[in-house]
Amino acid sequence: MSVKEQTYIMVKPDGVMRSIVGEIIKRFETKGYKLVALKMAVPSREHLEKHYEDLNGRPFFAGLINYMASGPVVCMVWEGRNVVLEGRKMLGATKPSESALGTIRGDFCIDVGRNVCHGSDAVESAQKEIALWFPEGLCEYEKPTVSWVY
Ligand code: RTP
Is 118 labeled as catalytic in the residue annotation? Predict the structure, then answer.
């Protein structure tokens, strides 16, 4: 898998309110991934419905949109080898009761309805999500530390 693989990671409103934005960024930074986009936003319900369109019709969908629209989120794109799969591992299982300790969800939350962060589940969905959240494009730059990671 290419070093240029990218994933969309989003700190959800509960993660922002609980002041763990820096902790989540720190885990991706210290793992060795490269930050190529970062912003804070208060997404519209329409935008969130588009992001979660695959879940439309699930019993928790309305609650999920209410939760996600309840405050600002922090949107990021991280780049590096296998970052989609590795990012999901770093987040931990969707349900915090099943997330291993040491993962973000395993360490910082209890309830599936307040699970602090999102991460793309496949390369294809990452590309769709990056286009949805960053239509303005990403930040292109060379990072000299990369050769120390790979
Ligand atoms: P995410 O998209 O947020 O990274 O989560 P995921 O892929 O791990 O899980 P997914 O099945 O796509 O669910 C998206 C989000 O919906 C909420 N959820 N609530 N009440 C429930 O049973 C339930 N199930 C899912 C969670 O916030 C989950 O992250």
Answer: yes
